[in-house]
Amino acid sequence: GCTQLYNFDLVYAHPGAFFQTPFMPLGFVPEGGSSYTFPKLMGKQRANALLLAGDRLSTQEMYNAGLVTAVVPSETLDEFLEKGCEKTKRIAGFNDESLRMAKVLMKAAAGVEEQKEASRREGKDLLVRLNSEEGQASMKAFAEKSGGSKL
């Protein structure tokens, strides 16, 4: 899920949340266009911490890096959801056409085509890794460790 956050319009996170990608520990490659979007958004070093080192980054670190819109302190899940809904309701009151047009303009500026190309490259490389003996063994070990079904 972490690699998909770039695609969302707004990302609100609880201070206790963390962000991490499993690619290197599993012996795979980045996916979801993250090899393009993460360095573009947060810089090479922070992107490498997530994609290459598999570091576990805090909500505050991801806010500072630009992937999280806001840190939303809350005592309970209900309070967190209530605060998120307040934002959503406010935005829902804006003019629909203006919102749509603004999103189209920002999508063009975000380099969506480059992101799609990065995702295609990642998919090709991911297939290589998934079809390797090492990759299949890694997935089997992961499934067993997490209590998932047999591969």
TrEMBL record:
One of the Pfam families matching this protein, by short name: ECH_1
One CC-aspect GO term: peroxisome
Predominant localisation class: other
Keyword flag Isomerase: yes
Gene3D superfamilies attached to this UniProt entry: 2-enoyl-CoA Hydratase, Chain A, domain 1
Source organism, top-level taxon: Eukaryota
Subcellular location as annotated: Peroxisome
Keyword list, A-Z: Isomerase, Peroxisome, Virulence
Metabolic or biological pathway, per its Swiss-Prot or TrEMBL entry: Mycotoxin biosynthesis
GO MF annotation terms: delta(3)-delta(2)-enoyl-CoA isomerase activity
Entry keyword annotation includes Isomerase: yes
Cross-referenced InterPro entries: ClpP/crotonase-like_dom_sf, ECH/Chromodomain_protein, Enoyl-CoA_hydra/iso
Protein name as catalogued: ClpP/crotonase
Biological source species: Glonium stellatum
Upper taxonomic lineage: Eukaryota, Fungi, Dikarya, Ascomycota, Pezizomycotina
